[in-house]
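Extended Data, panel c. Modelled sequence:
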Amino acid sequence: MQIGTQLEAPEGFEGLSKNTIYCLLRSDPNRRRVLLVEFRCLTPRDATQHLRAKKTYRTTLHFLSRDRFEKALEAKQIRSCEMQEELPPWFEGMTIADLRVYASFGQRKKSNHSQRIQRSISHILPLVNNLEQVLSADMPDSLINAHARSCEPKQNETRFRTMFYAYICFGFNPLVLHYTVHNIGRWER
């Protein structure tokens, strides 16, 4: 399995819940652990019925024993999702091709979105370049948070972690850092 492989535990497994998708970050042979990330929606379920409700996401790391993880894979307690999404869950089923159409709009603005994406990438690039060190740290979130605070201007730690994990889990594709655009103009007026 490679970084970003989307996994599920159909009946739950240890700290993993059923009906939840996890992305593989690292299988660490030295620490004998597997690191998974969950992109958890924080918006209450009843609020999501309204298109106007903005969904917010936060990352949660899950650490599993490597031996237990491998046995769970063999026993099909954990398995790869049949459908591997191209984009993080906040894009709700969009594809890279759909997002490229939106990205092409606004190229004439003073500061277009591709420039904002490049600024975001420049902030996370030092972590991406040292990915092995970051993911093998005792607590990767602490290392990422410290880097977010050291950026100029300082970055919101929660959004920064979400941006970092999304970027590495979805193929280092800059478009995963794009604004969510699929509901623009669709809310009840």
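The chain is about 35% helix and 15% strand. This feature is highlighted in the accompanying rendering.
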